[in-house]
Design brief:
Distance between the termini: 37 Å
CATH superfamily: Fe-S cluster assembly (FSCA)
Largest sheet: 3 strands, mixed
CATH topology: GMP Synthetase, Chain A, domain 3
Low-confidence stretches: none
Helix content: 40-55%
GO biological process, one term: iron-sulfur cluster assembly
Strand order of the largest sheet: 1-2-3
Order of helices and strands: HHEEHE
InterPro entries: FSCA_dom_sf, NIF_FeS_clus_asmbl_NifU_C
Structural class: alpha+beta
Number of domains: 1
Radius of gyration: 13 Å
Mean pLDDT: 86
Protein name: NifU family protein
GO molecular function: iron ion binding; iron-sulfur cluster binding
CATH architecture: 2-Layer Sandwich
Amino acid sequence: MADNALKEILIQQVELALDSIRPYLKTDGGDVKVLDITEERVVVLELMGACGSCPMSAMTFKGGIEQAIMRAVPEIRGIQAVNLTPMDV
């Protein structure tokens, strides 16, 4: 991102959005970490603890994490998890 100040503001906003769902993640032994926000305003996350290996992590990501960020920080254009466990079909 060209403007580091804007990137820092967006990271703070994303962290606040994640703080709203962290208690639920931590209840199940998980958490989420912001790794980066790209030039394209895509948030890159790492699912940690139990969330990193949970077979339901894709649902948690889409229904919880992604929704919380997109609702709270409309400037974000996308969200990507580097270690998302694919759902068994």
